[in-house]
Amino acid sequence: MNSTPSPPSSPPSRLTTIKDSLMVVILAGIILFATERVLSRLHEVVVVVLLSLTLVIVLNPLVKLLTHWVPRNWAVVIVVVTALLIFFGSVGGLLSVIVLQLQVLAKQLPSDIERLTPLFLTFLKNAGIQLNITQIKHTALQHASVVSTQAIHDTVRVLRGIVTGVVDTVLIIILTVYMLLDAPRIASSLKHLIPSDRLPAVLAVEQTVAHVVGGYVRGQLLLSLIIGVAFGLGTAIIGLPDAITIGAIAAVSELIPLLGPVIGSLLPLIFALLNHPGIHVPEVLVMLLGIHLLESDVLGPRIMRDQLGLHPVISIIALLIGATWLGIWGALFAVPAAGIAVAGIRAGSGAWRAYANTVPKGPESL
Q1: Does 250 share its domain with 331?
Q2: I need a surface site. Which of 5, 101, 169, 317 has the fewest CB within 10 A?
Q3: Left if phi > 0, otherwise alpha if psi is -120 to 50, otherwise beta: which for 255?
Q4: What is the span of the domain harbouring residue 83?
């Protein structure tokens, strides 16, 4: 005797779909809160790992390219050694130029102070402000011991920071090398752990992350190069000394989120104050305003939009959130994280629309 066929299961109603979506949002909020509590206590470890992963994403395409001619181990060695030589060579060359210019500035400083002091005192006198130089010297001597003690504490803190930075740099290099060497094996292991029907989605996520992070790095390097050239040309046209040094420092400082533009603007202002301030300071201020407008209104939004697909407002909000949460490191990773999140939201909304179109309207939606 034939068994009675079971009635076909009814498709999920829109109310059920909304309930499921709310549960997903609540669970995502709980996961994000727990992640924030963990990362706030382990942010140094997280920063080291994130920097290593970023370097892996940036350097792995070069390693893959070289594997057409040499084994992967040699490709990793060539790429990492070349990257280290470029990085430390650039930093060393820049530091040597900065030290040389500081020595020149130190030699010129006494004569500049002697030349500028009467002008400054005359300006204050005309403004009705009287200064007692003897009292100022006496107060400075009284605070000299306090300043020297604070300088010792600051020196110890700086040395501790240098040691920590060296250790973190070594750890980042080691992690990057190991992950580059084992990238194929890690990818193969992960593919075996992921169900075959979910593998295309996971690969799409991996490609999105690589595209966003790589695009962010390329965009930052391009923006840094353009800003450095603009600073160098601008100071050379104005007539300030050491235009190449000013441009190089501006290019490097541009890589620092939030504080970079401020740091890059200090050196041309200092040189302008020491060399005919009445003429050069207004010219430098106009140059800084023009470069800032070029960066914030033209280059920055266009480069970030082309590389990450982010609106400038989202980039600024991400920077503020990252800086508030994890300081300078949070600001560094905030924009690529926002790019990944926006890409995920776009993909999720597309999948949601595709799913919603396949669900027929039930009685509850009528």
Answers
A1: yes
A2: 5
A3: alpha
A4: 43-193
